[in-house]
Specification:
The protein has helices at about 1-5, 10, 15-30, 40-70, 75-105, 110-135, 145, 200-215, 215-220, 235, 255-260, 280-290, 325-345, 420, 465-475, and strands at about 345-350, 355-360, 385, 410, 435, 455-460, 480-485. With about 500 residues, it is mostly helical.
Length: about 500
């Protein structure tokens, strides 16, 4: 029963927020002809009394809630609990002062009562802001102001790739052209024979879709919605059958597929009705991936250069590098992961079967800068995936990545990085995927990418890169799949994709 009372906290907490703020407003907008000796505002005192009672109920239920259902963020929880308790105590003291002022009509009690009302309102606001941060993540309120405005408004009559058409039907879109446009093969190039569909690769195909559509609510944030963290796929697949989200080999029994294929007006549809729906190609990718067994752990085979891997076998199984670390390197890696998590970054091993590590600094608020790159120290022999999306890293700061020779996938989208930054990527001999969407890269920067022999995928949407420069790059690097978009290339990056 105590746990049930604790879970009523979200119900109780909204009453004091409204009532105590209403008490403050009622007292300070009272009619001028009402004398201070007449006591407090009648409406204000009524709201204050009810607000105080509900604030005490919210404080008690909040402590029970924290005791039985701790959210896993002790520092933020501590500040929220004590600010809420302070608001309840301040309301109680203020209510007592207002009651005495009302009974004695003593003008001396007007000042402390009004100061108490202001202090109570401030504590209510602070506690509410901290509670919101526990649900949506720290910095949520001001996050839109920190976004990089790199996406220009679409021309009249042109569909934006990030927004659905107002006149589009509610059914799943079938046009995948909004996702990405692959650079056509050079003129005169021989057409490649059609190949059977390759198996779906989680890291290359499915995870980018989940990042784009799902991770904002169900990603690495401290308190994901519904306590569902799709970025931790091991935990998702380990769910018991009764609550299974993904049933490997059986798409129709998988709750994830059911949610993303519901009608747009269904209250359970994902993404929600007010967000852009998944495209048909994305849904089909998820369906195929589940039908093929929902494989996700990288293999223990070493990665060969793209040119050495047959096109029909390149995506036969999810891939991952075979890394062997010494005890000292493993200790340094674990210490680095702890530092990154403490700072709020997403940092973990790709799977229990590999030493490879992935890090996402793009989730940090305020955005990560050059200083945060120092937190990667210790991951030099094992960092294979890094996201700096929407970060504030500078061109010069990117030089810190030259020591990470195992890096395979680098996301730089929605940053202010330009051509000078690409010059620092030359030592990354194993880099396979580079996302430059919505950066300041221009034609001059492509020269720095030609020596990257392992490069297989390049995303170039919303940059200053011209079609002519991309065509020239395609002629000199026919092994690279160039995508003018930010979403994953659904075709393999080998010759068959061209």
């Amino acid at each position: 029963m105590l746990q049930v009372l604790g879970r009523l906290h979200p119900v109780f907490v909204h009453f004091p927020i409204a009532l105590l703020l209403a008490a403050l407003v009622a007292e300070f907008v009272r009619r001028r002809r009402v004398e201070i000796n007449d006591g407090p505002s009648e409406a204000g005192f009524f709201c204050l009394a009810l607000g105080t009672a509900s604030a005490l109920a919210a404080a008690v239920s909040g402590w029970l809630f924290a005791e039985h259902d701790p959210p896993g963020m002790p520092e933020l929880l501590l500040r929220h609990r004590w600010s809420g308790t302070g608001a309840a105590v301040a309301a109680l003291v203020t209510c007592f002062s207002a009651w005495r002022w009302r009974r004695t009509a003593s003008a001396e009690l007007a000042r402390p009562t009004r100061i108490g009302l202001v202090l109570t309102a401030l504590l209510v606001g602070l506690s509410g802001q901290l509670g919101g941060a526990m649900v949506y993540g720290e910095g949520f309120t001001l996050e839109p102001l920190r976004e990089t405005p790199n996406e220009p408004a679409p021309e009249k009559g042109e569909l934006s790739p990030s927004a659905p058409s107002a006149s589009a039907p509610e059914a799943l879109p079938t046009e995948d052209a909004a996702l990405a446009v692959v650079v056509p093969p050079p003129a005169g190039a021989a057409a490649e024979p059609s190949a059977a569909p390759r198996p779906v690769d989680y890291l290359a195909d499915v995870r980018p879709v989940l990042e784009q559509r799902c991770f904002e609510c169900h990603g690495a944030k401290k308190r994901p919605k519904g306590k569902l963290r799709l970025s931790d796929l091991a935990a998702v697949l380990a769910r018991p059958p009764a609550t299974a989200l993904i049933v490997p080999g059986d798409p129709e029994a998988s709750e994830l597929l059911r949610r993303i294929t519901l009608a747009r007006d269904d209250e359970d549809v994902m993404p929600p009705e007010d967000e852009e729906p998944m495209l048909a190609g994305e849904v089909e990718l998820v369906r195929r991936w589940i039908a093929e067994g929902a494989r996700w752990e990288p293999s223990t085979q070493p990665l060969a250069p793209p040119s050495a891997v047959p096109a029909e076998a390149e995506f036969a199984t999810p891939r991952g590098p075979e890394l062997v670390l010494s005890n000292a390197q493993r200790a340094a890696r674990d210490a680095a992961l702890e530092r990154l998590r403490a700072r709020g970054a997403h940092a973990q091993r790709l799977a229990a079967s590999t030493e490879a590590v992935e890090v996402d600094l793009g989730v940090l608020r305020p955005p990560a800068g050059d200083a945060e790159l120092a937190l990667l120290s210790g991951l030099e022999p094992c960092l294979v995936e890094l996201s700096l999306a929407r970060s504030a890293v500078s061109d010069a700061g990117l030089a810190a990545l030259t020591a990470f020779g195992e890096l395979r996938r680098l996301r730089l989208e929605h940053t202010a990085l330009g051509d000078a930054a690409l010059a620092h990527l030359a030592p990354l001999a194993r880099l396979e995927t580079l996302d430059l969407f919505a950066t300041r890269v221009s034609d001059a920067g492509l020269a720095a990418l030609r020596p990257l022999r392992a490069l297989a995928r390049l995303y170039t949407g919303e940059t200053a890169l011209t079609p002519e420069a991309l065509d020239e790059f395609a002629r000199t690097r026919a092994d690279v799949s160039v995508v003018r978009g930010a979403l994953p290339d659904f075709a393999p990056p080998a010759a068959e994709a061209r």
